[in-house]
């Protein structure tokens, strides 16, 4: 299809899907709509939408290999739609605005992948589950680290918001100060130099999208 799909956030979307008769047609419409939203919204919450994209590709591939039925594919795709629709509630449940949630996802993804770090050694920000290598006994540690991550999210965003003057994205001196303070905060939390550089780039990219004035 070359036409822009009806947004999954529109009430009309469910009507469009319901009007289609086969699971294959419904799945195709939903896939097209999800891909469009990911393309449009990727920079707003890169970690969330990259994860969603990977899961979408996995579902499509599983169906192509006939490991799942058309009905199962449809069910999995609808799960992705619900996650996208509920991103605001997910953020709220964690005590975040959607901007804070996007930043939190960046920090959480980094600590999940950098197991060598002394700060979060053996720690993954996910619900306690043996599947993710987190045993029930680790639940209290997990909760503690999750709270620290949330505090860090609030601190960084508050700092950036104070510096985000009108047209700051065009002002090199303001951006330089944002980077400096972000790096300082991360350094005080025990992040290593390579982590600080990598995270600061991602955080500034997000800020340009979320905090532009």
Automatic annotation (TrEMBL):
<keyword id="KW-0680">Restriction system</keyword>
<dbReference type="Pfam" id="PF11867">
    <property type="entry name" value="T1RH-like_C"/>
</dbReference>
<dbReference type="InterPro" id="IPR051268">
    <property type="entry name" value="Type-I_R_enzyme_R_subunit"/>
</dbReference>
<feature type="domain" description="Type I restriction enzyme HindI endonuclease subunit-like C-terminal">
    <location>
        <begin position="130"/>
        <end position="207"/>
    </location>
</feature>
<feature type="domain" description="Type I restriction enzyme HindI endonuclease subunit-like C-terminal">
    <location>
        <begin position="6"/>
        <end position="114"/>
    </location>
</feature>
<protein>
    <recommendedName>
        <fullName>Type I restriction enzyme HindI endonuclease subunit-like C-terminal domain-containing protein</fullName>
    </recommendedName>
</protein>
<dbReference type="InterPro" id="IPR021810">
    <property type="entry name" value="T1RH-like_C"/>
</dbReference>
<dbReference type="GO" id="GO:0009307">
    <property type="term" value="P:DNA restriction-modification system"/>
</dbReference>
